[in-house]
Amino acid sequence: MNKDEYIIINKTAIQKRIEELEKTNQIQRVDELENVLSQSTSFISEIDKAYDAGKLDEELSKMFDNPKGRYLSSLKLDI
After folding, report:
1. CB neighbours of 72 closer than 8 A, spacing ≥ 6?
2. What angle do CA 77, 70, 57 make, to 5 degrees?
3. Quick one: CA dihedral 34, 10, 6, 44, positive or negative?
4. Which pLDDT does position 18 carry in this prediction?
5. CB within 8 Å of 23: residues ≥ 6 apart
6. What is the per-residue pLDDT for 26?
7. Alpha-carbon distance 57 to 73, whole Å?
8. Over the range 23-47, which residues count as b (16 or more CB within 10 Å of their CB) and which as e?
9. SS3 of 8, please?
10. pTM (2 decimals)?
């Protein structure tokens, strides 16, 4: 069974590239990038789902002394 793999992309950079391509009438590439964006999911919403799932697990919930909002605001990624 294949598992889905996810990547993090910079939405702002993709939108900027779309604008550049639109100026040069490269419609096929614009369509490709817009398709990528249309399939994208907000990273924060995925973190929210994982946090909520962890709260439901009896063992994991013992580690959750941090409210979700504070948890998300203090989350840092080195990418």
Report:
1. 44, 47, 48, 51
2. 85
3. negative
4. 95
5. none
6. 94
7. 22
8. eeeeeeebeebeeeeeeeeeeeeee
9. coil
10. 0.57
Query: In the structure, what pLDDT confidence band is assigned to residue 58 with cuts at 50, 70 and 90?
Result: confident
CA distance 29 to 61: 45
Q: What is the CA radius of gyration of the chain?
A: 18
pLDDT digits (tens, 9 = 90+) for 41-57: 887 788 888 778 877 77
| Residue reference for tokens 């697990």 | 57
Q: Within its chain, how far is the Cα of 29 from the centroid?
A: 22
Predicted pLDDT at 75: 63
Compute, in degrees rounded to 10, the torsion defined by CA atoms 38, 40, 42, 47: 150
Q: How many C-beta atoms lie closer than 10 Å to residue 18's C-beta?
A: 19
- List the one residue out of 42, 47, 52 whose CA is nearest residue 73: 47
Identity at 22, one-letter amino acid code: E
